[in-house]
Amino acid sequence: MYRQTEIVSDVTQLPPLGGGGAGYFTINVGPQHPATHGVLHLVITLNGETIINIEPHLGYIHRSIEKMCESLTYRQFIYVTSRMDYLSAHINNHACALCVEKGMQIEIPARAQVIRVLMDELTRIASHELWWGAMAMDVGAFTPFFHAFRERETINDIMEETCGARLTMNYMVPGGVMHDLHPNFQKRVKSFLELYKSKVHEYDELVTGNIIFQNRMKGVGVISAEDGIRNSRRFICKIYGAAEGDESIYSHYRTVN
């Protein structure tokens, strides 16, 4: 286990595995590494290609955004939220704007609400395109990446026409959106949806049934139902600052959600 950059307990001293005398192997991934987008530091314990344990170092990701924004107005803070997750800029802008509107008790026009949801959903699809394309490439299939980015670029073209940007949008602001949709927006989105429906089968052919992808992914990161429930309950208790096992907290959480 690692705390900051200090070794607290050396996992390499764990007993050897298997009958061949092979033991655990510990490597550092990041914080400056092409596989850890952002600046995430992972201490990974391996047995061959099987990951036995991961200790994440989240401190490197903290960029003092909260402190920096103490000197910004609510409108200026929107530009920072675009960069908190540059694949979901619209969604982050939306969340920030909603917080300000809720605090000021502002109800925005229905048209602006619809525009926000449309932009969020297009962002979600574009983000998923990058995910599955990069995921396939990471396990050895290069071609799917190009197919995924083909459709992603179409979405980015639509975004650029309305927002003037392709990644960090800064489009949703407290009170609504920066400006109305481009006149071509409806036509181009309808065209994209038809295109997208015609391409989904290609994704399946390239990845879902790909034997390399299956061999690299099957049985990896499996979480049992019991572990899933137990970890979820621990998380809920942590959110509310309650003792683990407090049944009243679970009931409250189900009620409010």
Report on the architecture of this protein:
By secondary structure, the chain is mostly helical. It folds into 2 domains: 2-61, no CATH class; 65-209, Orthogonal Bundle (Cytochrome-c3 Hydrogenase, chain B), CATH 1.10.645.10. Helices cover 54% and strands 11% of the residues. The chain contains 9 helices and 7 strands. The strands form 3 sheets. A 3-stranded antiparallel beta sheet has the order 3-4-5, with no helix packed on it. A hairpin with a 2-residue loop joins strand 1 (2-3) and strand 2 (6-7). Helix 2 runs antiparallel to helix 3 (89-104). The longest helix has 29 residues, at 110-138. The model is unreliable at 1-5 and 17-21 (pLDDT under 50).
Reconstruct the topology from this structure.
Elements: E1 2-3, E2 6-7, E3 25-29, E4 41-47, E5 50-57, H1 65-68, H2 74-84, H3 89-104, H4 110-138, H5 143-163, E6 172-173, E7 176-177, H6 185-208, H7 211-217, H8 225-240, H9 247-256
Antiparallel strand pairs: 1-2, 3-4, 4-5, 6-7
Helix pairs in contact: 2-3, 3-4, 4-5, 5-6
